[in-house]
Task: structure prediction
Amino acid sequence: MRRPPWAAPADPEVLRVRAFSHIRRREWEKAVQCLNETLREPEDQPINEDFVPNKQVKAWKRCSSDRGSLIAFLSQSLVLRGRIKLILNEKEAALSDALEAISGLSKTDSVYGKALLLRADALYQMGRFEHSLIFYHRGNRSV
Result:
């Protein structure tokens, strides 16, 4: 879906708040759409700053100045999207979100344990019970 040129993309933080409101209303598909938009990197196209301020580019530049906060923000969004995909019974997609979230984190991050628990839930729903037990144990130990 292409955005019209006059519509400015929203700030990623605002999109995540919208996703939370959709989750509260149990509108899972809309929440996934908001999170997909949050995780999408902005295009590096010339922006007419006088006409429409590009909030998404500014937010990404603000977050990318502190690499740790950017990785934490993206990982939290990935874990949230993975949880919703488990609700929608998209197990493989949830597992890939969990693996992507885990790959960018160190073991001391607060999101690391939640990503491990998401991986365990996805593996459990896929029927791989032994592997899920391992990741449940690791996730509970690091939370």
Summary: Residues 67-87 form the longest helix (21 residues). The chain has one domain: 12-41+57-142. Residues 12 and 38 are 5 Å apart (CA to CA).
